[in-house]
């Protein structure tokens, strides 16, 4: 199952890159000497995330209220070279789900959190609209607070896909809205998030 999802993700990514390559507008420009503008761009923001995978059933009588919609945040640095395909790194924090644990008069809570560490590619589709694709690792932490605190962690290979629209505020700042699918494939944990990002072109050079 994991290999099938991985192959499907790679095929979709390659297809999108081929389709958009001819239509994408290059945001880099030449100066009077013909040099191309390179940049490092920081994207940071937060929003809401909805967990779309199934939750395994706990022992009978221990499950309380389930919350599948929680906060998610993203921190991403992208290198914009002198061509349309960009490269970068992404991390952040997502609370996949949480629920109350109830057993008679005793109660507690359990949550599953994810910190992605992903290599990212992106490309402009049309002006101000960008597509992102990532592959890497999700650090998953289960936090149980019930008659004591227990934390357990595991690693899962995974991917993500995102689509964003950026509204320019100035030459170096923009505000982006982004919809993103996160997939910790090995553990079959998936979510869809809607976020707002501040986009800062913090370093530029010509080459």
Give an overview in words:
The chain is mainly β and about 210 residues long. Strands 1-3-4-5-6-7-8-9 form an eight-stranded antiparallel beta barrel. It has one helix spanning about 1-20; strands at about 35-50, 65, 70-80, 85-105, 105-125, 130-145, 150-170, 175-185, 190-205. Residues about 15-30 have low confidence and may be disordered. It has one helix and nine strands. It is about 10% helix and about 65% strand.
Strand residue content: over 45%
Structural class: mainly beta
Cross-sheet strand order for the largest sheet: 1-3-4-5-6-7-8-9
- What is the CA–CA distance across the termini? 45 Å
H and E order:
HEEEEEEEEE
Q: Count of DSSP helices? A: 1
Using DSSP, what is the number of strands? 9
Low-confidence stretches: 14-32
Measured on Cα atoms, how large is the radius of gyration?
A: 20 Å
Overall pLDDT confidence: 84
Shape, principal axes of CA atoms: elongated
Q: What summary fits the major beta sheet?
A: 8 strands, antiparallel, barrel
Quaternary structure: single chain
Helix content: under 10%
Chain-wise SSE layout:
Layout: H1 2-21, E1 37-51, E2 63-67, E3 69-80, E4 86-103, E5 106-126, E6 129-145, E7 149-168, E8 173-184, E9 189-206
Antiparallel strand pairs: 1-3, 1-9, 2-4, 3-4, 4-5, 5-6, 6-7, 7-8, 8-9
List keywords for this structure.
elongated, eight-stranded antiparallel barrel, 207 residues, 67% strand, single chain, mainly beta
Could you provide a short overview of the structure?
This protein is mostly beta strands.
């Amino acid at each position: 199952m994991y290999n099938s999802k991985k192959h499907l993700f790679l095929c979709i990514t390659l297809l999108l890159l081929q389709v958009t390559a001819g239509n994408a507008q290059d945001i880099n420009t030449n100066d009077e000497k013909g040099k191309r503008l390179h940049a490092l761009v920081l994207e940071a923001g937060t929003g809401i995330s909805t967990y779309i995978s199934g939750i395994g059933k706990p022992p009978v009588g221990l499950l309380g209220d389930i919350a599948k919609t929680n906060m998610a945040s993203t921190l991403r640095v992208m290198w914009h070279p002198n061509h349309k395909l960009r490269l970068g790194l992404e991390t952040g924090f997502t609370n996949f789900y949480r629920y109350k644990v109830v057993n008679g008069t005793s109660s507690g809570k359990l949550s599953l959190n994810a910190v992605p560490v992903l290599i990212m590619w992106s490309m402009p589709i049309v002006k101000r609209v960008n597509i992102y694709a990532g592959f890497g690792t999700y650090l998953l932490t289960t936090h149980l607070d019930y008659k004591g605190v227990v934390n357990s962690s595991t690693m899962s290979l995974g991917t993500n896909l995102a689509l964003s629209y950026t509204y320019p505020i100035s030459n170096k700042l923009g505000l982006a809205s982004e919809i993103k699918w996160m997939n910790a494939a090995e553990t079959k944990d998936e979510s869809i998030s809607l976020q707002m990002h501040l986009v800062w072109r913090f370093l530029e050079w010509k080459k």
